[in-house]
């Protein structure tokens, strides 16, 4: 059953903004990424509009240019997505896709704008998109209920197929960040192996062990090398942010 979101207990809200520093194989500056949240309306419905952008910088840009944009419009209370946009250019590999979700009929209307093809797919109830999944899980995961090895599952529609998304809890870990030492929850999102990722268990995620569940670090083992994203700036947090102070 899809949960209704209490705005007081929500881990995020209008005006939240993150900026990430991307590095390749641990040392080479690779790019930046941002995530922003705004309240707006879509077809007279109150929604959160999340925009995620990623782009390469420095030397990496010379031989592998990336410019990605992801957008999701999802319901403020249920967090169910209504529209998802994926517009990417990764070294010449491009996609320009818009997806509209009909949760009453359990259908996804996919508009492949690059190839001028429109298709309709059946979806499972309470389907999430690639972006809304993260915000849905931020609100639904209760750290006090987690045990090491637990797996959290949800259904996600990605591009043109239903995908059973799985997140494994790896335990707690304190990591050093730009802001100081932070107590974190460590997860293993299972991803699709293939063109980008080396294998299903290629991704590791660290989020702050507080009400915000800030995404502080993401590490990905790629087909060639590894990519790491570290949170370097933020604003608009809904709750206080706890930093450990050395005595």
Automatic annotation (TrEMBL):
Pfam families: DUF3108 (PF11306). It comes from the Bacteria. InterPro entries: DUF3108. This is DUF3108 domain-containing protein. It comes from Yeosuana aromativorans.
């Amino acid at each position: 059953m899809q949960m209704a979101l209490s705005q007081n207990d929500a881990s995020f809200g209008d005006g939240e903004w993150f900026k990430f520093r991307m590095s390749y194989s641990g040392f080479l500056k690779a790019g930046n990424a941002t995530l922003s949240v705004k309240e707006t309306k879509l077809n007279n419905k109150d929604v959160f509009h999340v925009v995620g952008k990623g782009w390469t910088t420095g030397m990496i840009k010379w031989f592998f240019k990336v410019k990605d944009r992801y957008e999701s419009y999802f319901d403020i209370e249920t967090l169910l997505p209504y529209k998802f946009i994926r517009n990417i250019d990764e070294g010449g590999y491009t996609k320009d896709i818009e997806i509209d979700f009909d949760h009453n009929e359990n259908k996804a209307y996919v508009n492949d704008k690059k190839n001028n093809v429109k298709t309709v797919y059946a979806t499972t109830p309470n389907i999430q998109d690639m972006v809304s999944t993260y915000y849905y899980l931020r609100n639904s995961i209760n750290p006090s209920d987690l045990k090491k090895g637990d797996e959290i599952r949800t259904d996600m529609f990605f591009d043109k197929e239903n995908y059973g998304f799985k997140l494994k809890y790896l335990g707690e870990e304190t990591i050093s960040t730009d802001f100081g030492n932070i107590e974190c929850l460590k997860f293993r999102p299972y991803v699709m192996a293939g063109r980008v990722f080396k294998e299903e268990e290629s991704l590791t995620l660290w989020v702050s062990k507080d009400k915000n569940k800030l995404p502080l670090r993401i590490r990905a083992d790629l087909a060639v090398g590894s990519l790491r994203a570290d949170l370097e700036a933020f604003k608009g947090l809904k709750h206080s942010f706890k930093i450990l102070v050395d005595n």
